[in-house]
Amino acid sequence: MTDAEELAGRVAEGELRLHELEQHADAEVAAEARRRLLADETDADLEAIGAYTFDAADAAPNVENMVGAAQVPMGVVGPIRVDGAAVSGSKFLPLATTEGALVASVNRGCATIRAAGGATARVLENGMTRAPVFRVDDVGEAAEVAAWVEGNVDALAEAAEATTSHGELTEVTPYVVGDNVFCRFVYDTKDAMGMNMATIATEAACEVLAEETPAELVALSGNLCADKKPAAVNSVEGRGRTVAADVVVPRDVVERYLKTTPEAIAEANTRKNHVGSAKAGSLGFNAHVANTVAAAFLATGQDIAQVVEGANAITTADVRPARAPDDEGTDGRQGDLYASLTIASLEVGTVGGGTKLPTQSEALDVVGVRGGGDPAGANADALAEVICTAALAGELSLLGALASNHLASAHAELGR
Known about the structure:
There is one protein chain. The chain is α+β, with helices and mostly antiparallel strands. Strand 5 and strand 6 (180-188) form a beta hairpin. The protein has 14 helices and 10 strands. Strands 1, 2, 3, 4, 5, 6, 7, 8, 9 and 10 form a 10-stranded mixed sheet that branches.
């Protein structure tokens, strides 16, 4: 009997629990034992799940009760030309997805942007948040606590930053709701996505706040952060990176690559992404930004649940007068297409978490942003600019397909 068989048997007999196997064997054997147990209990064939290439021990920080790995097909889009503050030039972006036609669609948008001379992208704000909730006796006490917080940000920052060698507390905003006081802490987490960093730092700051005021901590996360949930506060204040990209696409490029006109795309965007989204009460006024964000997150080792915030985006499109070559006025042609995408809360990192896994590290190498940047934060900024530009490409492609009534035929042609 192998070690894995023996361990699986001991779990089946109730002698061991699933999470205890690494105490009796190395990570590879423990994962094999769980697969054997599942196969016996469910009659499932787990050969593909067990066919992974990384060291199981390396995945210990990322998963518990490991049985194997989920393999998602990965494609690539690009090159896409980006004129950013953190990245400049042509970049490829790996996308992991099971949705047929997605990579082809985004790649068509990349070709459109490339033919237009490239897109401009900028990270506008950067701040990972954590918002604990405190209990007080009444609104008078709540106002007292809020005033103390506003006057003692330096003391809170000293406590928070003592827990990390990289993170910086940039602001704390108190919010009062009856006998509740929420404090939204905002951190510059450099090249890390920074959720764990922000949580640990905020816990230390909360100890100071509780010692100096009547407030009693109820929960380290009070949902005003807001993490992994649709939230207007993230639309307005941002979370992670607030990043924008835009491009002017000449009319002939729109017609050649997107098979439609700037006017048709602008109208489709207004009626679909703006009016339709408003009627639906949506927080995302876009066509399908979540598609590109989720696929990029899977490929590059981001926290996939944070696609909720990553879809918090607004797409704009309008027709601009065509400029003469000497830039002294219009040249008499019909207008060109201006399109932009602003993502309010794109939470990405190039160090820590899933970015350390082999597949994801290789994907980050494709973009050229693996590890810490110089200066700190530059690599995560660059990744945000590339993802936003690729998502803008996806918006252009889908809007073009809708405006030309080619959406269904494109999916049918690709056999999806």
